[in-house]
Amino acid sequence: MSEDWYTPEMEAAARSLDAVADHVTTVVRDSEALIAEAEAAREPISDEDVARLEKYANARFHTPEWQELKARIAAGELTWRDIASGQALTDPGVAAAAQSVQSLPPPTAEQLADLGLTKPPEPAPTTPPTRRREWADDDDYFDEFSAQERFH
Fold first, then answer.
1. Half-sphere exposure of 91 (CA within 13 A, CB side)
2. Are 47 and 79 in contact (CB under 8 A)?
3. For residue 67, which of 13, 18, 113, 141 sits 20 to 30 Å off, Cα-Cα?
């Protein structure tokens, strides 16, 4: 049996496909290395960060999905650290809870300060603004100026 059916064009296409596959493999390998490097460099979530998330969620998130998620946390299925670190983001209950608060208005600076999550906003000044000086006509210098005298 003859190999005549395998034309030079087909051979070129196969080489081209192999080159693309090699390139994709290299890109994937490099991407995996970058992801591993980024994950290793990422600082762990602090206990304070976890406590702030829990405090904020308990004060602001009262949707049924969050109530269900809080019950799961209380039962030990998940932890606040799992949520804060992002490890639980693929959990359908966590995703539903996160989606449920999208329509809530953002907290005000005062609300965040009341929760101890930010510094209180600076109070507005109580003194009235100072008036600017009145403009004084100080262009007397030009009163005696004459272009005719100057250039003749």
1. 18
2. no
3. 113
